[in-house]
Amino acid sequence: MSEQEVNLKDTVSGVLVIDKPVGMTSHAVVQVVRQGTGIRRAGHTGTLDPRASGVLVVLVGPAVRLSEYVSASDKRYQAIIRLGETTDTYDGDGEVVTRRPVDITTEQIEEALTHFEGTVEQTPPAYSAKRVQGKKAYELAREGEAVELEPKEIDVYHLELLEWDPPEAIIDVFCSSGTYVRSLSNDLGELLGCGGHLVGLRRTKSGEFALRDAIQLRKLEEAFETGDWYKYLIPAAEALADWPSRELTNEEVDLVRHGHRIPVEKAPENPERWIRAISQQGELVALMEYAPEEKEWQPRKVFFS
């Protein structure tokens, strides 16, 4: 490895949007990135089950400090739901619990989906990573213990039936972070009276990033071998592209990097919302909060010093 490559890896920060293949854990994909880049600071922003494929956002270098903000972003999925069968895990990995005939029309499915749109309460699956009595819920469930999880509030912005080929329905799901599509599949089947479970899931969007931004893992691994993987690295600032931003002068960059406030040019429309502070080169310098009394921007999270 050349001295130039070493120096570059010391400063690299950004986002790799990966099209995760079925059969791999999200953690395993992150390990591939760490090994391929030689950068230990890397992490994903929202787990995809091994059975699921699609958009996995991996933050690299100092950009990992954006994780809490990017993880909270909305998600979009294409879900394949098999009606007529329920399983104990709400997906194809579980044991079949019930089987019922399926005599459902397209119109009935579309009408049922409207009941799950909006701000709704959803109970996570017993076979999930939710903590109960200091253990993960799925650990208790596998031990044969009854697991009762509290419902949580989620937002489902849009549900659309894309295809109905009995007994399987393909649904477009646009929802808030923390939504369990497995629970949605089970609940839909229950409402229709025939039962249902999730048999396929593909994440098509996570926050600002969609499949069009993603690179197949195999192709990324080839880029690691050739050493040109940097061309797939997206600037960290784009991970929060829906946030308002402020471009800093070179003098302001130096002030912000040392934790100093900078004056507000114009009072923000939403004083409670943080902004991205970006250098003239497009580099994310900090996340900043408005201090109304002083009419200044206060650095809250600085990414480079």
Structure description:
The protein is of the alpha+beta class and 305 residues long. It folds into three domains: 3-73 and 208-238, 2-Layer Sandwich (Pseudouridine synthase); 75-195, Pseudouridine synthase (2-Layer Sandwich), CATH 3.30.2350; 243-302, Archaeosine Trna-guanine Transglycosylase, Chain: A, domain 4. The protein contains eight helices and 20 strands. The chain has helices spanning 3-11, 26-37, 67-70, 106-113, 137-142, 181-192, 217-226, 250-257; strands spanning 14-20, 42-44, 53-60, 75-83, 85-87, 96-99, 118-122, 131-132, 135-136, 152-165, 168-175, 196-206, 209-210, 215-216, 234-235, 245-247, 262-263, 275-278, 284-291, 296-302. Strands 1, 2, 3, 4, 7, 10, 11, 12, 13, 14 and 15 form an eleven-stranded mixed beta sheet that branches. Strands 16-18-19-20-17 form a five-stranded mixed beta sheet. A two-stranded antiparallel ribbon has the order 5-6. The longest helix has 12 residues, at 26-37.
